[in-house]
Amino acid sequence: MTLATWTAVDSYFNDLLLPEDPVLTAAARRSEEAGLPAHQVALNQGKLLELLVRIRGARTVLEIGTLGGYSTICLARGLPADGRLITLEANADYARVATENLANADLAPRVEVRVGNALTTLPSLAEEGLAPFDLVFIDADKPSNPRYLEWTLRLTAPGSVIVGDNVVRGGAVADARDTDPRVRGVRKFTEMVSAESGLSATAVQTVGDKGHDGFLLALVTD
Ligand code: DHB
Ligand code: MG
Questions:
Q1: How do residues 12-44 score in pLDDT, each as one tens digit?
Q2: CA-to-CA distance for 204 and 168, rounded, in angstroms?
Q3: Is the peptide bond before 132 cis (omega within 30 degrees of 0)?
Q4: Which keywords are on file for this protein (predicted)?
Q5: How far apart are the first and last CA of the chain?
Q6: What residues line ligand 1, using a CB cutoff of 6 Å?
Q7: ipTM
Q8: Interval between CA 82 and ligand 1 midpoint (Å)
Q9: What CATH topology corresponds to 3-220?
């Protein structure tokens, strides 16, 4: 199996299941034009996020790592009209692009983009009494994943859903000797999920036009 096959399979399913989406296409284009890294979720993975929000019946969503707001749009689409999404972004330029993309998606009233290092903004969410969140999407700098999980556990409640993006890293996650801080971050994150008795979790590898990666899905059970 090669990237060409994975891309062809993505195209087959996306052509049938995911009709033209001018809002997401424009969001990706605006992000690219602004020079953001092309790290947004794939189209089909974005739809998975929307469906998870809906399946959970989530009314409050937290995203750690906004980038250009592509996954933010997907998550927010799954919310009811009175739902709320807070998304945290360290880079003010990225946050500006995301704010434009959310306005173009007519989702700005449902979404708050908070600029600043998430390790600073996460404590303020707790202090402001905004928890618990029904779903948390962790998709920021991978070395900080262990800290993001600690905060996520404080900001969720039984029944909350946690999704961690990019836990496979082209397969490197399986190599205990890998010294890349991003790989170490996702390994430590996974070990912490494993050790947490109040979480029921799985991880799924993905291939497609974004290559080989995967996500971790956890349910807060108690
Ligand atoms: C990287 C980060 C992401 O969130 C992603 O979706 C893909 C790659 C990275 O840091 O390499
Ligand atoms: Mg990601």
A1: 999 999 989 999 999 999 999 999 999 999 999
A2: 9
A3: yes
A4: Methyltransferase, S-adenosyl-L-methionine, Transferase
A5: 40
A6: 39, 139, 142, 165-166, 182
A7: 0.94
A8: 30
A9: Rossmann fold (3.40.50)
